[in-house]
């Protein structure tokens, strides 16, 4: 084998490992279809990620527009205790695009639990879904025309993130900025609107 000189450029290759294992969701149901399931009136029925779900945009009552009521106790669960609704979680790109089509600056279920919020070094692994499902899809700033960080990364803002203007990070994710194309953001927009999700039920 010939010697490699000091000024020679070489290319190396390694096998990449995924950040998160994409395991099948526990409630995946290949037999469920839009024809054999139903949602309550006022909910939108969609098939995503191996099952059929119902979605609804809900305004959060003025007296409950705080992290405790809106996120920790899950506004969707408080509003619809009879049908198992939770703040929406997202698990595949098709569902992500649908959530993007709904009203901007609506909270979804991705959040930093209260016991981690005083840790100024919290990172992306601190975020979890209120419904307990795995964090197996990432939609931060996806395809955004206007980055909120000086770093060109698909990630939330952190306490030490360099940001434009006086925007500050929140401990909950919103479906998108009101710019027509961005992905999830945790800029603090307040707790005015939520996107709820529940599993569709079989038709009788």
From TrEMBL:
Q: This protein's superkingdom? A: Eukaryota
Could you tell me which InterPro entries the record lists for this protein?
C-type_lectin-like, C-type_lectin-like/link_sf, CTDL_fold
- Residue ranges occupied by any C-type lectin domain in the UniProt entry: 39-197
Tell me the protein's name: C-type lectin domain-containing protein
Q: Organism source for this protein?
A: Panagrellus redivivus (Microworm)
Classification lineage: Eukaryota, Metazoa, Ecdysozoa, Nematoda, Chromadorea
